[in-house]
Design a protein that fits this description.
The protein has a four-stranded antiparallel beta sheet, with no helix packed on it. A four-stranded antiparallel beta sheet has the order 2-3-4-5, with no helix packed on it. A four-stranded antiparallel beta sheet has the order 6-7-8-9, with no helix packed on it. It is 5% helix and 47% strand. The chain is mainly beta and 373 residues long.
Length: 373
């Protein structure tokens, strides 16, 4: 991963979220209720708006999540406090096309169904609101989390499946058409069983709060935890979740996990962004045990992987990681600042990573996915 450019001059406050569309446009949301739409080819701002509308121009609510429509990439959903605004980016974006006010507490993440038919919004109450995007009305409310629901992700192939994670240390998979839980996993039950390395201090000091969940194209589910661990989960049965692999490379909480195809990217409060080798499918040789508490195939330790941190050549970084025994780390990027949001984007033969941190600047990195190696 190499730094390609930085987008500046759009925001005046910390950028909290980013998303990109197939029109090579980037949307960024920040503290103080501001959204910028960028032309990625020029790195310039096309539109700058305050989604709360003209009647609330002085609103200081944060823009916490953004997502573009998959079938109509000019449509942009913006989450501000408890509301969701829908904009058409082909226009001047002076006013939204629609506004959804179903959440009762601050929204943490928006996620779109692969067919663009449903929008999920998880919030601080622990509830997940499912909105029918065609009829533009509430479809279902999912209630099971007992604390903040921090992240939600639709399954790429199973049309009624959705996963969620929260600060109650719980992960749920849902049949959202019925509002029922298929399976659940408490991250407090996942033991650190790697005897070949010392236990990271972040593991012993921090609870395994779930900050992020993400599905890969082939249906693997990854979760990033406050105790610095990343787990790749395995569904041996529809109602049985186990751990396929545990990735150890961060030294502080994992703020986000996201897949670029089947390549896993993670970002942490330690300012590091890691590209991981992940298995495809769910072959039985990856299942180390029927016990969902088993957490290990990766034998690298966070302190060992730190020696491979580099912003230079990917091959050099990968070689150093392997020499340190970090068999699943392909590349470690020391971004420096605590990362708020990452957004991978692939166009033609180019793969980019947009990064938002504690500043008002967007960093753009070039990355190499496994499909292009």
């Amino acid at each position: 991963m190499e730094l390609r450019t930085k987008y500046t001059g759009g925001h005046t406050d910390t950028i909290l979220c980013v998303c990109a569309n197939s029109f090579k446009q980037l949307a960024t949301g920040s503290e103080n209720n501001q959204v910028c739409l960028w032309d990625c080819a020029e790195g310039k701002v096309i539109h700058r708006i305050r989604p709360a509308g003209s009647s609330q121009q002085n609103s200081e609510d944060d823009v916490t999540s953004l997502c573009f429509s998959l079938t109509q990439p000019h449509n942009l959903y913006c989450a501000v406090d408890t509301a969701i605004y829908l904009y058409d980016t082909r226009c001047d974006m002076a006013s939204p096309m629609a506004k959804f006010e179903y959440n009762k507490e601050e929204i943490n993440q928006l996620a779109l169904h692969p067919k663009d038919t449903y929008l999920a919004a998880c919030d601080d109450s622990g509830h997940i609101r499912i909105i029918d995007t065609n009829q533009r009305k509430l479809y279902k409310t999912l209630r099971r989390h007992t604390n903040i629901c921090s992240s939600v992700s639709f399954h790429p192939k199973l049309p009624w499946h959705l996963a969620s994670g929260g600060l109650d240390c719980s992960i749920y998979t849902w049949d959202f058409s019925r509002g029922r839980v298929f399976a659940s996993l408490s991250t407090q039950d996942l033991n650190f069983e790697d005897e070949s390395s010392s236990v990271p201090s972040s593991y012993t000091l921090n609870p395994p709060l779930v900050h992020s969940v993400s599905y890969s194209n082939d249906g693997n589910l990854a979760c990033g935890l406050e105790n610095s661990m990343i787990h790749l989960l395995d569904f041996k049965k529809r109602n049985d979740i186990g751990v396929k692999r545990t990735f150890k490379g961060h030294t502080q909480g994992v703020s986000q996990v996201i897949f670029l195809g089947n390549d896993l990217l993670s970002a942490g409060n330690d300012g590091k962004i890691i590209l991981w080798n992940t298995p495809s499918g769910s072959s039985t040789d990856e299942r180390k045990s029927n016990n969902p508490n088993v957490s290990d195939v990766n034998k690298d330790e966070a302190s060992s992987s730190a020696s491979s941190e580099s912003t230079g050549d990917s091959n050099e970084s990968t070689g150093e990681a392997e020499a340190a025994g970090s068999s699943y780390i392909r590349h470690v990027l020391d971004h420096g600042d605590k990362v708020n949001w990452i957004c991978p984007f692939q166009s033609d033969d180019t793969s980019l990573l947009y990064v938002a941190d504690q500043t008002d600047v967007v960093s753009v990195y070039s990355i190499m996915s496994s499909g292009s190696t």
